[in-house]
Amino acid sequence: MSNVAPIPSSASHGFFQAKPKLENQFHEDSSYSRTLDFFLPTAIRQSTAGPLAQFGAKVLSPQFLLWLQNAEQQPPTLVLRNSFGSPRNELVTSEGWRCSQDFALREGLVASGYENAHGVHTRLVQFAKIHLFCGSSSSVTCPAAMQDGAAKLIRAQLRDPSLVLDGKTRAVLESAYKRLTSRDPSQAWTSGQWMTERPGGSDVSATETRAKLLSEAEIQRGSQAVATDGSPLGPWSVDGFKWFSSATDANMSVFLAKTAASDRVSLFFAPVRRNTDCDASLTEFNGVFPQRLKNKLGTKALPTAELELKGMRAYLLGKEGSGTKEISPVLNVTRVHNAIGSVGGLGRGLAISRAFARVRRALGSRLLTDVPAHVRGMAHQHVEYRGHNMMAFFVAYLLGITEQDEPSTKSLPLVASPSWTSHLLRLLTPVAKAMTALAAVDGLRFCMESLGGLGFLENEDVELNVAKVFRDANVLPIWEGTTDVMAADTVRVLKGRGAKEVLEALNGWTNSIIANEAASAGLDLKALSTEVKLVGEWIREKDVPELLYRGRELLERLNWIVTTSLLAADAARDGDAVAMEVARRWLARRDKSLAESLAVQPWEERARWDREIVCGEGAKVETRSSKM
Ligand SMILES: Cc1cc2nc3c(=O)[nH]c(=O)nc-3n(C[C@H](O)[C@H](O)[C@H](O)COP(=O)(O)OP(=O)(O)OC[C@H]3O[C@@H](n4cnc5c(N)ncnc54)[C@H](O)[C@@H]3O)c2cc1C
């Protein structure tokens, strides 16, 4: 024992934790890499690796993190009155927010989805980029999602032979589409999507916003201002109140309103801003009056406002009274964005958790990566993440297939029959939206805890601020439809018109995976067939009220079937030991005998697998005999 008394700690002396280093997720996130390996053909995987790696570095660069910090610290504000009390109507956003948004546009986060550079894999490459972006994005991914949905909607309107568009309306929509898919921030448009009103967002039938078709004389008497792209304003005048508008700084919006001809909602499109009557170089809101900004738990940089619409000039899209149907292409796209946003956010949280575990010591001097109880919790979340990544990207893949001008008549990898694609997409979009969002919130709560007290702090080192990622993630199960609303949508698909074809597609697809791909992994997949049968029985035997009551169970079952099938197919691809273990753990959730065999596995063996799943350093894993 030394006689020298230890020096007590002080503000500048003693232990200081080394800063965890967050690595480029393109290289460090093995689940992300494996998911891309699984879905992308080798040539596309290779040709996109350089640009994606560069992008992964950019979103963690000091410049980008400064924007992120600035956007978070300077939330948007409204200026509603001047010093003398006269009305003003301005929304002010931070420089960080605007720069992040310009960056997203330049990088083609939406545009790339329409450039068709990779055929059926175009959407996968687009979403691979968005996945990397989510944790750094200041929530500009929200208007980007709605921009994407609006682009898809307007393209569909322009191409629909059953819609007779007059020359003026066609030109207006063509201009909007061009801007929605532009990479030039000075030209590009983002979009809002206004559905939620005070009576309810889940059920839009009580919409109170009203649209009135103006006569030619009324149009002549009104403002002669034009939209910011020079297009004339629409012939409808809209009054109402939108309770949640996330993209209040968007250039245009698609929204629901009722007309005199129908008590059902109709879909409208309008530029949010127009040139002022007095000076064509200045812009003002197009009959939009923000009332207040929402005070939110997360997504602080995002200008979410309540909007009064007074004389907003708009165009009707599609048929009057068919708004719910007409807006569905938008929702289908934004829900895929939500799913990718969920796994992207969770991926960032887990990366922070890994970075911390690589430098933080416990139990005397052991790194957290060497503490089995800690790694066990991390492994559980990594297994979740792997599965949800597969599901989210599968839905993105299906979306990309359905969007090809010449739909494939041949079988594609993973989708043996082309006729299954649209049915699977329709069925799995709400499932993926709901389940990835819940997984993100659960997983990110764990990630915060894994950093101890630091996890709960609003860290100055913004790239490590897992609390912010958690706060932001909590909206993911709510907007674009809550979990129960997704469940109700799924029931509608399975009990509505076309339900038979949807179930056949699910059956056919799962059986093809079991027979063609997963069997070669040496996994016993009987539980999958049993579960598909059980879902079929539920749909046949239970009525709609009971299925709605059991909606979350239905979502979980469908999610398990598809995710486990994908993981088994992934393991079969190259026999990778970790992929096999992940597939096994998902399988065990509904395979009782496998669960029992895993439960009696020696803990040290299980702990070694945990470490392999989390750290993937080729830690020596004993081979074992089991029922597989
Ligand atoms: C940050 C943020 C940004 C948003 N941005 C936008 C935006 O830009 N545009 C937009 O239109 N909306 C936006 N929203 C609104 C969001 O989409 C709605 O809040 C959401 O759809 C729920 O609607 P609601 O709030 O009216 O809740 P309600 O519809 O009243 O739902 C309340 C509860 O009832 C449950 N419920 C409702 N119907 C059913 C049912 N049939 N079966 C079972 N349970 C049911 C819901 O699950 C929920 O738990 C935003 C919300 C937030 C928080």
From TrEMBL:
<keyword id="KW-0274">FAD</keyword>
<dbReference type="InterPro" id="IPR052904">
    <property type="entry name" value="Acyl-CoA_dehydrogenase-like"/>
</dbReference>
<dbReference type="InterPro" id="IPR036250">
    <property type="entry name" value="AcylCo_DH-like_C"/>
</dbReference>
<dbReference type="InterPro" id="IPR041504">
    <property type="entry name" value="AidB_N"/>
</dbReference>
<protein>
    <recommendedName>
        <fullName>Acyl-CoA dehydrogenase</fullName>
    </recommendedName>
</protein>
<feature type="domain" description="Adaptive response protein AidB N-terminal">
    <location>
        <begin position="43"/>
        <end position="157"/>
    </location>
</feature>
<dbReference type="GO" id="GO:0003995">
    <property type="term" value="F:acyl-CoA dehydrogenase activity"/>
</dbReference>
<dbReference type="InterPro" id="IPR009075">
    <property type="entry name" value="AcylCo_DH/oxidase_C"/>
</dbReference>
<dbReference type="InterPro" id="IPR009100">
    <property type="entry name" value="AcylCoA_DH/oxidase_NM_dom_sf"/>
</dbReference>
<keyword id="KW-0285">Flavoprotein</keyword>
<dbReference type="Pfam" id="PF18158">
    <property type="entry name" value="AidB_N"/>
</dbReference>
<feature type="domain" description="Acyl-CoA dehydrogenase/oxidase C-terminal">
    <location>
        <begin position="321"/>
        <end position="492"/>
    </location>
</feature>
<dbReference type="Pfam" id="PF00441">
    <property type="entry name" value="Acyl-CoA_dh_1"/>
</dbReference>
<comment type="similarity">
    <text>Belongs to the acyl-CoA dehydrogenase family.</text>
</comment>
